[in-house]
C-alpha cells in the first residue's frame, strides 16, 4: 500500500508539472485580459484531436505534429480574442463568462461532429522505468521535464524581454501601460496566443498518456480552475505550487478510493478552501 | 406604438392570459403544447434564478438545487411512496438547506463576485458527481425513471400532459408575482443598495447577510420545486440534465439573453432559446449528431455579443414599449465585483 | 507645440470639460490651476488619449492627436506623470524605468537614458531592484517623473505632483522640475498648489468646473485679485 501511495505521489508530481502549464495559461489570461477562460480545457481537447489527426491519420511524425498543433492553438487563441473576447471587454462579467461557456458547447459538439464520441488515442508506447519498487513512466517523465523547461522559458520571456515586461505591466495597470507606449490590444492578442500555445503544449505532453473524447475538456477545465483559484487567481507562482499540490492530492486520492470519489474530494476541498480563504492558499487578491 | 397606459397594459395582459389558457384547446399539435409547457417550466426556473442574479449574486450552480429537489422527491416516491406534492417540499427544503449553508459561508466570509460564481459552479458540479457516484440509489448516469402510476393526480402524475401545461403556467405566474412583490418590498431596496455598494449599505444598518440569505434560500427552494416539476413532467431524471455545469449555465443563458433585470426578461429569453433549440434541432439535427448544438452555441455567443441587455432589455431601449416607472435596474450594468 | 482647441469631454452623462483651449509652446512651462474636481486631470487624460473628447481638436507638433490611441501619442513625444505616480507596484524600480522606454523611439536609447536618469536621481539607482510599491512617497513621485523621461518625450505632463507629499519633499520635487525645465523639455503641469506652480510657469490657465476662466502670463496671475484671494492665499 505504501508503495502504491509513493508511486501515486510521484506520478502526481510529474503530472503536476503539466498541470502547472495549464494553470499558467489560465492565470496569464486572467491576469492580463481579466477574463476567465471557461473553455480552456476544451482548447486542450482540440489540440489533442489535432495531434491525433496529424499523427495517426496523416502520419506526420509526432514532434512535427506537436509543433504544428502548438501554432494552430495559438491561432485559435487569437481568433477567440478577436471574435469572442474583444467584443465583450466592457460587458458585464456574467456575459463574458457565458460567452466563453458557449464556446464549450461549440467546441465539444464540433469535436463530436467531426470525430464522433469514440475515444481516440495516439499509439505511442514509451518504456517504464523502474527504481526499486517505484515505477515511473517515461511519458510522465518527459512531460514533467518538458513542462519545467517550458515554464523556465516562459519565466525568462516574461522577465527578460520587452514584450514580457509589457505583459506584466498590462496585467498590473493597463491604463498606465498604454501611456508607456504599450499597445494593449496587441498585448491581449499575444496573451491569448501564448495561452493557446500552452494548451497545444499540454496536449502534446499528454498525447502518449491519455485518450481523448469530446467531453475530455471538462475535467481539465475544472481541475485547472481548482489549481488557479487555490493558488490565487492571477498569481503565477501560486498556480505553479498549487498545481503540484493538486496533482499529488488527486493521484493519492485516486489510489485510496476511486477516481470518481477522488474528483468529488478534490471539488469538496476546493469549495472549502474558497470559503475559508478565497484569495487562495498563496494568493494576495490581485497579485500577479 | 406606445403602450403606456396602465389600463391598456392590464387589458393586454389579460388578453394574453386568456389566450394562453385557451391555447391547448386550439393547439396545432401536442408537440407545440409540449414545447410551450417546457417554456413555462424553464421560464419559471430562470425567473427564480434571476431573483439572485439581478442583485449581483450570480449563481453558476443552480443545477445543484434542481437536482437535489428532483432526486430527493423522486427517490422518496419511488422507495417510500411519498406523494411528490409533499415530497417536493422536502426536496426543495433540502436544496434550500444547501443554499443556506453555502450562502451563509460565502456571505459571512465575503466571497462575492467571481469567487462566488466559481464556488457555485463547483457545487453544481459536485452535486452532479455525487448523484452519479451514488448510482446504487440514483441510477447514476443512466438516470432514474419515476414509477409509473398512470393517471394519479395525488402523486403529480397525469396521463393527460395538458395538466402540466396549466400547472407550469401557474408556477410561472406565481414566480412573476413574487418578483413584483419583492420589487416593491423593503428587501428590494436593501438588496439594491447592497448591489451598489456593500460597505455603505452595511454602514446604514442594512443587515446584509440576512437579505442575501433570504433571497438565496428563496431562489434555491423554488428552483428545487422547478426540478420536481420538470422531473414529474418527463417522468425521468438524469444527472446531466438536472444538475451539473450544463443545465446551470443553460439557466443563466435563458435569463440574461432575455434581460436579467426585467420581470419578463427570463421568460422571453427562455422562449427565445427553447424555440431556437427546437428550430435548429429540426432543421439540422438529423444530419449530423452535434451540428445543431454547434449552431446553437454559436447563436448563443452571438446573442451575448450583440444583445448585451438581453432581448427584452434591448427592445425597451428602442422605445418600442415604454413603461412608466422603469423596471428595476434599467441601465445599470450588474455590479459583479472581484 | 501643443494646441488644444475647444475640447469637450464627458464621463457618461456628466460633462467634465467645456470648450477648453490651451497652448504650450516649445520649451515653455504652462500650468493649469484650479480646485478639486475642476477637470484638470480629465484634461490631461484627454490629451494623452486615455479619454476621447466628444468634440474639439488637439494638435501636437503639427500632428492631430485627439483621434489617436495612447500608445501612438506617447510615440509622438508626450509623456504623462499621472496623479499619485501610478507606478507598477509589483515591478522593480528598474523595470518601471525600462517600461518607460517601451516606445520604438526610446528603446534604442534605453541604456544611455538609464544612466542619465540615475545621475539625476541617484536614490533610484540605489533602489533599482526594489519593488516600486516599497518606496516612500517622495521617491515614488521621483520614480514616476523619471519613468516618464525615459520615453524621450518632448512634452512632459505632470498631474498634481504635490498631492500627498510633505512640504519639504514638495520643494525637492519642484527643484527637479526646474532642472528638467532647464534641460529644454516643454512642461504642462496641473496643480492645486498654485503658489508653488506659478514659480515655474511661463504661462498659466485657471480651470474651474470644466471651464477655462482665466489665462495669462505669470505676472497677470499674480496681479489678479480673485486669483490672489482664492488660490494664492494673499
Describe how the helices and strands are arranged.
The complex is a heterotrimer of chains A (288), B (338) and C (234).
Chain A: H1 2-33, H2 40-57, H3 62-85, H4 93-115, E1 120-121, E2 128-131, E3 134-137, H5 138-160, H6 162-172, H7 174-179, H8 184-206, E4 211-212, H9 216-231, H10 236-256, H11 259-276
Antiparallel strand pairs in A: 1-4, 2-3
Helix pairs in contact in A: 1-5, 1-8, 1-9, 1-10, 2-3, 2-4, 2-8, 2-9, 3-8, 5-6, 5-8, 6-8, 9-10, 10-11
Chain B: H1 6-26, H2 30-53, H3 63-80, H4 84-108, H5 113-133, H6 135-138, E1 144-145, H7 162-184, H8 186-196, H9 198-203, H10 208-234, E2 236-237, H11 239-242, H12 245-258, H13 265-284, H14 291-306, H15 310-317
Antiparallel strand pairs in B: 1-2
Chain C: E1 2-11, E2 14-24, E3 29-33, H1 40-48, E4 55-60, E5 63-64, H2 70-76, E6 78-81, H3 93-100, H4 104-107, H5 110-120, H6 122-126, H7 137-149, E7 155-159, H8 167-182, E8 186-191, H9 194-200, E9 203-208, E10 211-217, H10 218-223, H11 225-231
Parallel strand pairs in C: 3-8, 3-9, 6-7, 7-8
Antiparallel strand pairs in C: 1-2, 1-4, 4-5, 9-10
Helix pairs in contact in C: 3-7
Task: Provide an overview of this structure.
The complex is a heterotrimer of chains A (288), B (338) and C (234). Helices cover 75% and strands 4% of the residues of chain A. Chain A is mostly helical and 288 residues long. Chain A has a domain of 196 residues. In chain A, strands 1-4 form a two-stranded antiparallel sheet. In chain A, a hairpin with a 2-residue loop joins strand 2 and strand 3. In chain A, helix 1 runs antiparallel to helix 10 and helix 2 packs across helix 8. With 338 residues, chain B is mainly α. Helix content of chain B is 72%, strand content 1%. In chain B, strands 1-2 form a two-stranded antiparallel sheet. Chain B starts with 5 loop residues before the first helix and ends in a 21-residue tail after the last helix. Chain C is built from 11 helices and 10 strands. Chain C is globular, with a radius of gyration of 17 Å. The model of chain C has no long low-confidence stretch (mean pLDDT 89). In chain C, the strands form 2 sheets. A 6-stranded mixed sheet of chain C has the order 6-7-8-3-9-10, with helices on both faces. The longest helix of chain C has 16 residues. Chains in contact: A-B, A-C.
Amino acid at each position: 500500500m505504501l508503495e502504491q501511495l509513493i508511486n501515486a505521489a510521484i506520478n502526481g508530481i510529474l503530472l503536476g508539472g503539466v498541470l502547472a502549464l495549464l494553470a499558467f495559461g489560465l492565470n496569464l489570461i486572467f491576469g492580463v485580459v481579466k477574463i476567465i477562460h471557461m473553455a480552456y480545457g476544451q482548447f486542450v481537447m482540440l489540440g489533442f484531436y489535432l495531434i491525433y489527426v496529424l499523427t495517426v491519420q496523416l502520419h506526420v511524425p509526432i514532434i512535427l505534429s506537436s509543433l504544428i498543433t502548438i501554432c494552430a492553438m495559438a491561432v485559435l487563441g487569437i481568433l477567440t480574442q478577436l471574435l469572442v473576447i474583444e467584443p465583450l471587454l466592457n460587458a458585464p462579467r456574467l456575459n463574458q463568462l457565458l460567452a466563453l461557456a458557449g464556446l464549450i458547447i461549440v467546441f465539444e459538439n464540433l469535436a463530436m461532429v467531426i470525430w464522433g464520441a469514440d475515444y481516440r488515442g495516439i499509439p505511442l508506447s514509451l518504456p517504464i522505468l523502474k527504481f526499486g519498487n517505484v515505477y515511473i513512466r517515461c511519458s510522465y517523465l518527459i512531460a514533467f521535464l518538458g513542462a519545467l523547461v517550458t515554464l523556465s522559458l516562459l519565466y525568462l520571456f516574461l522577465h527578460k524581454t520587452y514584450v514580457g515586461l509589457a505583459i506584466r505591466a498590462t496585467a498590473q495597470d493597463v491604463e498606465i501601460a498604454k501611456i508607456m507606449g504599450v499597445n494593449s490590444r496587441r498585448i491581449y492578442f499575444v496573451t491569448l496566443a501564448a495561452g493557446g500555445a500552452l494548451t497545444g503544449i499540454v496536449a502534446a505532453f499528454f498525447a502518449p498518456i491519455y485518450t481523448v473524447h469530446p467531453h475530455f475538456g471538462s475535467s481539465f477545465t475544472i481541475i485547472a480552475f481548482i489549481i488557479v483559484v487555490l493558488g490565487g487567481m492571477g498569481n503565477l507562482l501560486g498556480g505553479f505550487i498549487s498545481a503540484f499540490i493538486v496533482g499529488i492530492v488527486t493521484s493519492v486520492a485516486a489510489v485510496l478510493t476511486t477516481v470518481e470519489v477522488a474528483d468529488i474530494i478534490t471539488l469538496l476541498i476546493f469549495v472549502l478552501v474558497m470559503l475559508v480563504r478565497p484569495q487562495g492558499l498563496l494568493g494576495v487578491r490581485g497579485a500577479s | 406604438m406606445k403602450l403606456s397606459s396602465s389600463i391598456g397594459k392590464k387589458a393586454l395582459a389579460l388578453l394574453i392570459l386568456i389566450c394562453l389558457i385557451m391555447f391547448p384547446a386550439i393547439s396545432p399539435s401536442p408537440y407545440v403544447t409540449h414545447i410551450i409547457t417546457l417554456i413555462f417550466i424553464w421560464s419559471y426556473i430562470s425567473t427564480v434564478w434571476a431573483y439572485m442574479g439581478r442583485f449581483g449574486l450570480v449563481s453558476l450552480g443552480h443545477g445543484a438545487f434542481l437536482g437535489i429537489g428532483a432526486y430527493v422527491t423522486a427517490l422518496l416516491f419511488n422507495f417510500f411512496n411519498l406523494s411528490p406534492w409533499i415530497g417536493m417540499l422536502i426536496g426543495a427544503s433540502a436544496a434550500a438547506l444547501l443554499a443556506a449553508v453555502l450562502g451563509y459561508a460565502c456571505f459571512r466570509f465575503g466571497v462575492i463576485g467571481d469567487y462566488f460564481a466559481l464556488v457555485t459552479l463547483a457545487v453544481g458540479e459536485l452535486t452532479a458527481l455525487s448523484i452519479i457516484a451514488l448510482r446504487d440509489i440514483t441510477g447514476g448516469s443512466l438516470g432514474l425513471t419515476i414509477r409509473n402510476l398512470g393517471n394519479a393526480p395525488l402523486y403529480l402524475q397525469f396521463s393527460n400532459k395538458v395538466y402540466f401545461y396549466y400547472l407550469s403556467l401557474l408556477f410561472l405566474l406565481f414566480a412573476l408575482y413574487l418578483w413584483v412583490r419583492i420589487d416593491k418590498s423593503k428587501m428590494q431596496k436593501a438588496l439594491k443598495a447592497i448591489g451598489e455598494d456593500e460597505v455603505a449599505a452595511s454602514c446604514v444598518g442594512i443587515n446584509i447577510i440576512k437579505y442575501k440569505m433570504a433571497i438565496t434560500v428563496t431562489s434555491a427552494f423554488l428552483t428545487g420545486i422547478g426540478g420536481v416539476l420538470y422531473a414529474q413532467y418527463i417522468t425521468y431524471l438524469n444527472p446531466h440534465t438536472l444538475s451539473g455545469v450544463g443545465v446551470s449555465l443553460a439557466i443563466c443563458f435563458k435569463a440574461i439573453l432575455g434581460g436579467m433585470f426585467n420581470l419578463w426578461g427570463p421568460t422571453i429569453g427562455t422562449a427565445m432559446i427553447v424555440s431556437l433549440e427546437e428550430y435548429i434541432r429540426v432543421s439540422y439535427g438529423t444530419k449530423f449528431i452535434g451540428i445543431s448544438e454547434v449552431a446553437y452555441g454559436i447563436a448563443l455567443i452571438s446573442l451575448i455579443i450583440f444583445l448585451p441587455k438581453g432581448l427584452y432589455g434591448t427592445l425597451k431601449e428602442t422605445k418600442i414599449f415604454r413603461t412608466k416607472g422603469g423596471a428595476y435596474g434599467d441601465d445599470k450594468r450588474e455590479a459583479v465585483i472581484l | 507645440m501643443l494646441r488644444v482647441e475647444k475640447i469637450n469631454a464627458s464621463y457618461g452623462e456628466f460633462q467634465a470639460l467645456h470648450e477648453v483651449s490651451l497652448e504650450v509652446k516649445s520649451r515653455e512651462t504652462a500650468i493649469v490651476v484650479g480646485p478639486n474636481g475642476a477637470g484638470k486631470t480629465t484634461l490631461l487624460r484627454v490629451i494623452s488619449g486615455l479619454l476621447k473628447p466628444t468634440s474639439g481638436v488637439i494638435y501636437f507638433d503639427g500632428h492631430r492627436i485627439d483621434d489617436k490611441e495612447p500608445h501612438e501619442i506617447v510615440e509622438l513625444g508626450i509623456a504623462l506623470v499621472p496623479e499619485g505616480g501610478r507606478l507598477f507596484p509589483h515591478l522593480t524600480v528598474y523595470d518601471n524605468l525600462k517600461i518607460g522606454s517601451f516606445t520604438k523611439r526610446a528603446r534604442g536609447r534605453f541604456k544611455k537614458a538609464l544612466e542619465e536618469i540615475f545621475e539625476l536621481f541617484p536614490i533610484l539607482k540605489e533602489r533599482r531592484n526594489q519593488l516600486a510599491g516599497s518606496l516612500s512617497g517622495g521617491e515614488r513621485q521621483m520614480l514616476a517623473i523619471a519613468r516618464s523621461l525615459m520615453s524621450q518625450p518632448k512634452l512632459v505632463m505632470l498631474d498634481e505632483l504635490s498631492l500627498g507629499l510633505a512640504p519639504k519633499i514638495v520643494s525637492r520635487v519642484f527643484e527637479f522640475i526646474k532642472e528638467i525645465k532647464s534641460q529644454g523639455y516643454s512642461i504642462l503641469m496641473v496643480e492645486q498648489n498654485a503658489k508653488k506652480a506659478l514659480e515655474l510657469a511661463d504661462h498659466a490657465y485657471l480651470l474651474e468646473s470644466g471651464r477655462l476662466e482665466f489665462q495669462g502670463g505669470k505676472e497677470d496671475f499674480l496681479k489678479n485679485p480673485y486669483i490672489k484671494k482664492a488660490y494664492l492665499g494673499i
